[in-house]
Amino acid sequence: MTEDTIIATVKKNSRENLRVSLGKFVGHNLLNLRLWFTADVDGMERPSKSGFSLRITLIPELIAALQQAEAEARRRGLIRKENDHAA
């Protein structure tokens, strides 16, 4: 396993972030999505058990699915404007 390249971090709440990264495992290029949390003990960020990895080649399908979810959330009025994260 090689060191991941962090692409983005999305703040979930005051204690958790969703980290999007690219990495490699056993010769496979992967997209990694994992929740990281701030530990109470020392205030350091640590990876949680919540998350998943998928082949880089599936990124376009994931993007299409997320775009469909966004469109449906907007249709339902759950997202009002570009910068609104919740209704």
CATH topology of the domain at 5-57: Transcriptional Co-activator pc4, Chain A
Biggest pleated sheet: 4 strands, antiparallel
Main-sheet strand order equals 1-2-3-4
CATH architecture of the domain at 5-57: Roll
The total count of helices amounts to 1
β content, as a range? Answer: 35-45%
Oligomer: single chain
Identify the CATH homologous superfamily of the domain at 5-57.
Transcriptional Coactivator Pc4, Chain A
Weakly predicted, low-confidence segments: none
Q: How would you characterize this protein structure?
A:
With 87 residues, the protein is of the alpha+beta class. The chain starts with a strand and ends in a 12-residue tail after the last helix. It is 20% helix and 45% strand. The protein is built from one helix and four strands, in the order ββββα. It has a domain at 5-57: Roll (Transcriptional Co-activator pc4, Chain A). The chain has a four-stranded antiparallel sheet, with no helix packed on it. It has one helix at 59-75; strands at residues 5-11, 16-25, 28-38, 45-55.
What is the fold's blueprint, element by element?
Layout: E1 5-11, E2 16-25, E3 28-38, E4 45-55, H1 59-75
Antiparallel strand pairs: 1-2, 2-3, 3-4
Compose a concise summary of this entry:
With 87 residues, the chain is α+β, with helices and mostly antiparallel strands. The protein is 20% helix and 45% strand. The chain has 1 helix and 4 strands; from the N terminus they run ββββα.
Structural key phrases:
87 residues; alpha+beta; Transcriptional Co-activator pc4, Chain A; four-stranded antiparallel beta sheet; 1 helix; 4 strands; flat
